[in-house]
Amino acid sequence: MDFESDAEGARKNIDAWVSDRTHARIPELIAPNVLDRDTRFVIVNAVYFKGKWETPFDRGATRVAIFHGDADVNVPTMHATLSAGYGAHDGAHVLDLPYKHDGGPALSMTIVLPDAQNGLSAVEAAYEKEGVAPFVAALAQTNEIDVSLPKLKMSSSIELKDALSAMGMPTAFGREADFTGITHSEPLKIARVIHQAFGLVDEEGTEAAGATAVVGMANAVMLTTPFRVDHPFLFFIRDRASGVVLFAGRCVNPA
């Protein structure tokens, strides 16, 4: 890429690459004017996932229901009675909805629903401390779960510079940065780290995409069990064999 003479052309090429890899779910990762003649490198990755439920929801059973967030909202909510992993841990109930895998990786969406309508922050604190493993360990296969799950379509764009600095890597963003492993021609530093994500959950399954850009610059039970997802919750798309979490998210308002 020729950032010095055509930063905007480079940006468009990068965004086109990301859009292609995420099936147009992330059409613009890097906004206009983020790159300029001082840009020296952009490191980009993208991931895309589309999975069909092992047991799809019947579209005819979807109806509007109340979701209790900061304010009550009416949202299309899917309903089904199905076999799924179910358990409880640290003030939350956990549901594990498997995707069809047809010989491929066995993946699932794990939903962590706080017992209290306003309990998301406490559950997030437990997750930050322990990770998702204790919630997964609480799962046990049950016969039938009566599931109510809102349809979701969500996206977010996050600037990660401050978060990464707070986590212990502030040097990379300042004058003391050392990227001599990349080049000795001039000192470099990271200017920005941009992350964007998209998620869609409907009766058929789940579609998700994520992309990140690092911009471097010159240094200057037998009974049916109800599981009503009607208030803020966490969710994870994970590989059940390895335990790797592919996507993690929080929903406070599905409208």
Brief overview, please?
By secondary structure, the chain is an alpha+beta fold. It has helices at 3-21, 120-130, 133-137, 161-166, and strands at 39-52, 63-68, 72-82, 85-89, 92-98, 107-114, 140-141, 145-150, 152-159, 188-201, 205-218, 225-228, 233-239, 245-251.
Commentary on this structure:
- The protein is of the alpha+beta class.
- It folds into 2 domains: 3-50 and 154-218, Antithrombin, subunit I, domain 2 (Antithrombin, Chain I, domain 2, 2-Layer Sandwich), CATH 3.30.497.10; 54-150 and 225-251, Roll (Alpha-1-antitrypsin, domain 1).
- Helices cover 16% and strands 44% of the residues.
- The model has no long low-confidence stretch (mean pLDDT 92).
Question: Which structural traits does this protein have?
Answer:
2 domains, Antithrombin, Chain I, domain 2, Alpha-1-antitrypsin, domain 1, alpha+beta, 4 helices, 255 residues, 4-stranded antiparallel beta sheet, 6-stranded antiparallel beta sheet, single chain
Radius of gyration: 21 Å
SSE arrangement, N to C? HEEEEEEHHEEEHEEEEE
Poorly predicted parts: none
**Average pLDDT:** 92
Kindly name the structural category.
alpha+beta
CATH topology annotation of the largest domain: Alpha-1-antitrypsin, domain 1
Distance between the termini: 40 Å
Q: How many structural domains does the protein architecture include? A: 2
What top-tier CATH class of the largest domain fits best? Answer: Mainly Beta
Principal-axis shape equals elongated
Strand content: 35-45%
CATH architectural label of the largest domain: Roll
CATH superfamily of the largest domain: Alpha-1-antitrypsin, domain 1
- Order the strands across the largest sheet as they lie in space: 7-4-5-6-13-14
Main β sheet profile: 6 strands, antiparallel
Q: Which range best describes the helical content: under 10%, 10-25%, 25-40%, 40-55%, 55-70% or over 70%?
A: 10-25%
